[in-house]
Structures are given as C-alpha cells and as structure tokens.
Automatic annotation (TrEMBL):
Its EC number is 6.1.1.7. Coiled coil: none annotated. Keywords: Aminoacyl-tRNA synthetase, ATP-binding, Ligase, Metal-binding, Nucleotide-binding, Protein biosynthesis, RNA-binding, tRNA-binding, Zinc. It is an enzyme of class 6 (ligase). The keyword Cell inner membrane does not apply. GO terms for biological process: alanyl-tRNA aminoacylation. Gene3D superfamilies: 2.40.30.130, 3.10.310.40, Threonyl-trna Synthetase, Chain A, domain 2. GO terms for cellular component: cytoplasm. Belongs to the class-II aminoacyl-tRNA synthetase family. SMART domains: tRNA_SAD (SM00863). The lineage of its organism: Bacteria, Bacillati, Bacillota, Clostridia, Peptostreptococcales. It is found in: Cytoplasm. This is Alanine--tRNA ligase.
Length: 401
C-alpha cells in the first residue's frame, strides 16, 4: 500500500522515496514507491506527471491501493530516489478541481441541481447538472455566488469521519467507496466525498468563468474555466476584441454593434446586387434575342461564354425561351470544364434532350434533361464551340429544312 503524500500535504512538490518494485509491461516500466506525492488518475482529476530521478513519469494510476508510476526508462537509484512532480500541471488541476466543487455547490444551493458528470479536460472543464432548462440569469447567479466563495477565501479541509459523524454531515452527494471515506469540506459551505487534490484556501482558485452551456436531454452541460485558464481565456478574447475594435475604429465596448451593423449592411448590399444583376440579365436577354439569326420564323441563339456562372447562364436561357419561337444553345468554359445548356420555347417541336445526347460526346459530357431543356458538362473544353455548332446544324437540317 503506497503512502499517499498528496493527501498529507497537497503542496508537496519534491520528496524522496524507496522503489519497492519495477514491473515491465509492453516496453514501459511501472514503478511502485513506498510513498508518493504523485496523484493517480481518478475521480475526474487527471494524473500528475514529473520525474523519479531522471526518469520522466508520464502516467500514474492506482490499483489495489498501490500507486504505479509509468516511465520509459527505469530509474537506477532504488533507495532515497529523488522525486519531483510537475507542479504547474498539478496546481492547474487543483484550481480547476476545487472550482468544480464550488460551482457544483452553487448550483446545488441555488437551484437544487445535482452534478451528475464532471470532466477536467486539457482546456476546459465541464459539469453536467440536473437542470434541463437553465436561464442566463441562473448561470450568472451561480457564477457570482461561486466567485463570492472564492473571494471570501474560505478554508478547505480534509475530513476522515467515523460512520457516526459521517451520517450527521450534510453531504452534497453520497460517497462511492465504503471505507476510508474522505470528505472535502469548504468551511461549512460544502461537504463532498472526494479523493482528489484541492488548494487549502478557496482564494487560490482565483476566478470561475462559465464559457457556455448546452442542454443534453434532461441535464445541462456547463463549460467553465478557473484560475490561470480563465486568465488565458480572457487574454485571447481581449486580443480578439482589441483587433476587431481597431479594425472598425470603435471603442472595444462597441465592437459587437459595429460587427452587427456591417453584417446588416452586407445583407442589404447582397440583395441590391442581386436585384441589379437580375435587371442586367433582362437587358442581356433582350439584346441576345434581338441579335439572333432567324430561320423559318425560329430564332437560334448560339453563344460561347468564358467562365460564366452556369446557374446564371441557365437563368439567362430560361428568360430568353420565355419568348415564343426561340432556341438557345449556350456554352461556358474554364480551363477544366465545358458546360452546355440547350433550351427552346415551349411550342417548338425539337427534342433538346435527344439533341444533347447527340452532341455531348464531343465534350466528353454527362447530363440530360427533358424535351424542352437539357444541360451538362464535360472535360473536352476545346470542343465546346464545335459541339454547339453541331447542335445548330442538326436543328437546321432535321427540323428547319
Ligand atoms: Zn474534489
């Protein structure tokens, strides 16, 4: 049974220990010490990292009351080995973990909402609470109360109560273990069974900031950050707001108004542009119609465009064939593909789909349509002009001769 130094003194960063055994498993070495300040993964809190002599500890876990320290190279010194934990990592976990106790306690006290899930990730921390619908006001209330608990700098104690005392404690949740029950008390404010590591004063959490929340079935997942993570979160957000406020030449408080104004102007411009575009197309359709060759009362409009938007070209064709007695043979090309649309007025008896099938092999094309309109594209770009010419010839010979 490894002596858990992190429960005796949570601030212990360096210690010496004797190595009791080293087990080799899949190329890694699992080291057992007589005592350890390394926190093993558990209760939602990630494991510590650090060093045993020169061996880097990359993973720590507990099994049958033994703590295993996983290293790549086994330490050589077995007696009085110098051990050191990565304090920056551990202190971050302590800040986030105690922050979680405080926030869970706030939701419990204010709204009678229990915490049923906890995840301490590398960037954010989440808790799942038993409230399906939560308002912004409730979030702000819980956040405010939590920060009050932090700024009152309350004492955090570890209790190992006997069964009698345990029964009398107002526990926020029931313990998962049946022996050696450890209760973390935030100075008469919150009692919660927990085996993790926490600072001894709430003030060390610094600040709690809720980032966002989402409803998941009957619960709400609250994402938040504490201490240094909250500072980092503030830093990038502040940078982003400053950049945007400089870009818009407004005060930082007015950035959102400036962005919303630009967005709405952009929407209006898009609408205006579309309406101008539509008007322009009316003129273009009329010009093409007027310039068309007339053969036996049918106007044939045959035109190759460069890099024209195909949707727009189809729209143009549709506009023209809404006039009587007109056939449209349009193509557009870029470096990689040629696209064709063949269309006619409703009363003309030419099957455009069949026509398309006849000429499309010239551009190595795929596509189709109905007797009135057919379209498609292919990669033989250089044949676009000749394929439309072929279509025109077929119409002249077969239908208009
Ligand atoms: Zn805890």
């Amino acid at each position: 049974m490894t002596k858990k130094l992190y429960h005796e003194n949570v601030y212990l960063k360096e210690f010496t220990a004797d190595i009791l055994s080293i087990l080799e498993k899949e190329g890694k070495y699992h080291v057992i010490l007589d005592q350890s300040a390394f926190y093993p993964e558990g209760g939602g809190q990630p494991h510590d990292q650090g060093w045993i002599e020169d061996s880097e500890v990359e993973y720590v876990y507990e099994e049958n009351h033994q703590i295993y320290h996983v290293v790549n190279i086994p330490p050589e010194k077995l007696i009085h080995a110098k051990c050191k934990i990565d304090w920056k990592r551990r202190f971050d976990h302590m800040q986030q973990h105690l922050g979680q106790h405080i926030l869970s306690s706030a939701f419990d006290k204010l709204f009678d909402a229990a915490t049923v899930g906890f995840h301490l990730g590398t960037e954010y921390i989440t808790i799942d609470i038993t409230l399906g619908n939560i308002t912004k006001q409730q979030i702000e209330k819980a956040e405010y109360l939590s920060n009050q608990v932090i700024w009152n700098n309350l004492h955090v104690k570890q209790l190992y109560p006997d069964p009698e005392t345990l029964k009398a404690l107002p526990l926020r949740k029931q313990p998962k273990v049946t022996e050696n029950i450890r209760i973390v008390e935030i100075d008469q404010v919150d009692y919660s069974p927990c085996g993790g590591t926490h600072p001894s004063q709430t003030g060390e959490v610094g600040i709690i900031k809720i980032r966002r929340w989402e409803k998941i079935r009957d619960t709400t997942r609250i994402e938040f950050v504490c201490g240094n993570r909250a500072l980092k979160d503030y830093t990038w957000k502040n940078d982003q707001i400053n950049t945007l406020s400089n870009l818009f030449s407004v005060k930082d408080q007015d950035t959102q108004i400036a962005v919303e104004k630009m967005y709405s102007e952009n929407q209006t411009m898009k609408k205006d542009l579309k309406s101008m575009h539509d008007q322009l197309m009316v003129y273009e359709a009329k010009a093409l119609y007027d310039q068309a060759e007339v053969s036996k009362t049918v106007r044939i409009i045959h035109r190759v465009f460069e890099q024209r938007d195909f949707g727009e070209l189809r729209q143009l064709a549709a506009k023209i064939v809404s006039n009587p007695n007109v056939v449209v043979l349009f193509g557009t090309k870029d470096n990689e593909k040629a696209q064709i649309v063949l269309s006619r007025s409703s009363e003309i008896n030419i099957n455009m789909n069949e026509l398309f099938k006849e000429i499309s092999p010239l551009i190595n094309g795929k596509g189709g349509g109905n007797p009135q309109t057919a379209q498609g594209g292919g990669n033989e770009v250089s044949n676009l002009g000749s394929s439309l010419l072929a279509a025109q010839n077929i119409i002249m010979k077969r239908y208009l001769a």
